[in-house]
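Problem statement: downstream parser choked on a complex file, so we are re-checking the raw output for the iron/sulfur cluster run. The parser issue turned out to be on our end (a line-ending mismatch), but while we're here, posting the original submission so the record is complete.
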Amino acid sequence: MAEGLRFACQPGCIACCTQKGFVYLTEADAQRIAEFLGLSARAFEKRYCYRTRRQLRLRVPREAQCHFLREGGCSIHAVKPTQCRIFPFWPELAKSRAEWRKTARYCPGIGQGPLIQIESARAEAQEMREAYPAMYP
Ligand code: SF4
């Protein structure tokens, strides 16, 4: 992508939270969210997470895409997982015009707001890579 990307999250929108897919957590994410919920890290993980050998992710409840999504939005917004905070500047989206356009089909924030300089977009993508080394080997 040449010069930059336009993006501004739209108030009241929860479209990205309802897409199919998993929400992965860093260990710091899990710790922060547990504290926010007043749970021990162990209790939080037992109740809400699924751990594989290399990754930790939120369980997907039967009737929704995320345990923490309410009608008004994310109930853990202040401490939300890294991948949610960085969206839509995920490496696979920010580096491909086609993927960015595809994401714009459900994210009305894409194409709105200020032009985000490509360096800032790349820095966000890099943070994502570093946060989830198993996803971006
Ligand atoms: S889909 Fe886009 S505009 Fe809507 S909440 Fe997610 S980031 Fe914001």
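For whoever reads this later: DSSP finds six helices and seven strands in the chain.
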